[in-house]
User: Fold this.
Amino acid sequence: MDKFCLEVSGDFACFTRPEMKVERVSYDVITPSAARSVFEAILWKPAIRWEVRRIEVLKPIKWISVRRNEVSAKASVRNAQAAMNAGQGNLALYIEDDRQQRAGLFLRDVAYRLHADLLLVGDDARANPAKYREMFQRRAEKGQCVNQPYLGCREFAARFRLVTDPDSEAPALAESRDLGWMLYDMDFAAVDDPKPRFFRADLQNGVIDLTQAQVTA
Assistant:
């Protein structure tokens, strides 16, 4: 098991609360699942798994309200299958017909320090752990990634850098508060019906310690 730390930042972020069905409203800070996705965007293989252990909030929590256009429909799986079988078909979505204007409450000017463990779950990874450790370190140092990391929504791209010595970095935000129940991750034990898992997020001096989190369904 190897430990890595990334500093990520962005102009905007939205870690959507699942209880908000229509308008997008963000959690106060990045969720563990969104933090895990940042690591996976740099390196993901079937033989490894990322487990986020600690989240440090580096900037004050600030909000922005935005009204934007979204497409209310999505491509039909049935129509796609029919087009594949027939060799032709109309799969287009027309923005003018399916446009909806929605408000969102997003975060702005965010920065976090994310700590995660690289867990080896495949035989190949266990046989050659240095391969995956060096692969991630090389990519993170050069700013390379499999796909662009983002902060909750794909339009909110994240900047990142590898932190080699977290103890020498500036301290986290000097703020403590109870952030309430937050999404931890999805449980994919039942592939056809994944279940959300939640935890009580407690921000202490700018730090959420996930090793102490009590996760519930």
